[in-house]
Amino acid sequence: MDPINPVVGNPPSVPPPVKDNHWVTIVSMAIFVLMSLGVIIFLYYQNQQLKSMLAKYQAQASPTPTATTDPTANWKTYTNPTNTYSFKYPDGLKSDTGAAGVGFESIRFTYIGPAQLASGKTQTELSDGYSFSVTKLGSTFQSDPKTEIGKAAQNSKENCTSVSAISNVVIAGINAFRYSGNCLGNYTTIYLSDGKNTYSITQLYTNDSYKTITDQILSTFKFFGATSSASPVPTQKACTLEAKVCPNGSSVGRTGPNCEFAPCPQ
């Protein structure tokens, strides 16, 4: 081939230039980043929702305790004339005292409800309302609580439609005896002793809401200077007039709570 006079004809083929695809890569990366951000935002939102639901569940499962209001906080206080016991009572009650016989005293607070007031029959038996009474029955050595409640429960069974069995309760830190009945209204009677005298406490009520109030009154009852914080002082039983002859010729009698013979002199 002559370099000076080249052959006239089709020129030699030259390959086309390669296109630059870097924009496709950039767009793909941008789409990937945006999708990743979307997934992250979605997962973050779901996590916040789960935290909020968990916080609400924990608040419902363990509510914050609130202080209980004492319903008797603003009540009045009654103290008997001999300063032996006291209890609290709400406003709107009528009180009356009684005295009959040596060492006998009583106090009763009565509330007459709106239904009975509307009827005008306020001088008859209690048909709407409640009463709370405390009665001193006499010396414990003359009449102990267990004996007294046995007699009272028996009398109630003869006159009332239903009387519960006698049960043990603790009132003002002292062991006591209780029974309930239905006789001109529902009632609960408790017998207890301050170590010196026997007392009865009676709650009379015509419905459960009134019973709740009389229970609240009872919860405030207390003795001043009771000789025992656990149980009433037992009644001392009289010992028989027997004598035991000792080896030295002297004699001893029965004594003590179990009426045992006193020891012989040495």
CATH topology of the domain at 76-223: Protein Transport Mog1p, Chain A
Q: Number of helix segments?
A: 4
| H/E topology pattern | HEEEEHEHEEEEEHEEEE
Helical amount among residues, as a percent range? 25-40%
Proportion of beta-strand residues: 25-35%
**Shape descriptor:** elongated
Low-confidence region ranges: 228-236
Assigned CATH architecture of the domain at 76-223 = 3-Layer(aba) Sandwich
Give the biggest sheet: 8 strands, antiparallel
**CATH level 1 name of the domain at 76-223:** Alpha Beta
For the termini, the CA-CA separation is: 164 Å
Radius of gyration in whole Å, from Cα? Answer: 46 Å
Find the structural class using helix and strand composition.
alpha+beta
Number of strands: 14
**Integer average pLDDT:** 79
CATH level-4 homologous superfamily of the domain at 76-223: Mog1/PsbP, alpha/beta/alpha sandwich
Q: How does this model look, in words?
A:
The protein is α+β, with helices and mostly antiparallel strands and 266 residues long. Among the domains are: 76-223, Protein Transport Mog1p, Chain A (3-Layer(aba) Sandwich), CATH 3.40.1000.10; 236-266, no CATH class. The chain has helices at residues 22-61, 114-119, 145-159, 208-219, and strands spanning 76-79, 85-89, 94-98, 105-112, 129-139, 162-163, 167-171, 174-182, 186-193, 197-205, 222-223, 243-245, 251-255, 260-261. The strands form 3 sheets. Strands 3, 4, 5, 6, 7, 8, 9 and 10 form an 8-stranded antiparallel beta sheet that branches. A 3-stranded antiparallel beta sheet has the order 1-2-11. A hairpin with a 4-residue loop joins strand 13 (251-255) and strand 14. The longest helix is centred in the N-terminal third of the chain and has 40 residues, at 22-61.
